[in-house]
Amino acid sequence: MTSNEEEEEDEEELDAKRKRRVLVPLEYSDDEDDEKRTEDRKRKIKDLVETIPTDKEGLWKWNVKWEELDENILNNKLQSFVSKKIVGYLGVQEDELVSFVMDHLRNHKSAEQLTKEMEMTLDEESELFVMKLWRMLIYETESKARKL
């Protein structure tokens, strides 16, 4: 074979490969639809936050959706929140205290019990700490239940 014949064969193979390609149609989404979904989600989150009580009695009486509380929420959201708050109150990282609070949540115990247990460490700030934690807990479990 001469070099011209080899080149022609190579070109024929390339042409055959090009012809065999299957084009897949691209699907485009309207930016307006995405914006509407984003706005709708933001509105639902805002509505949820507004329904969560800010007073002690309302928080303590709230029926927490414990079935929605999973390790992902505990480890990725609540644990860092608890850790930051404890450092804020005590000035040092207390891993045992963080573990205690996380175990309390894993065992689905009440806010009143946690407040009493935390009084030894946080004194009068224990109630404020548990209120903030309970708001966060309610938000996370409700947003998961509502698929936000």
Automatic annotation (TrEMBL):
Domain (PWI): residue spans on this chain: 57-148
Key words of the record: mRNA processing
Pfam families: PWI
Coiled coil: none
GO molecular function: mRNA binding
GO BP terms in the entry: mRNA processing
SUPFAM superfamilies per record: PWI domain
Lineage top rank: taxon: Eukaryota
GO cellular component assignments: spliceosomal complex
Official protein name in the record: PWI domain-containing protein
Species, as recorded: Gigaspora rosea
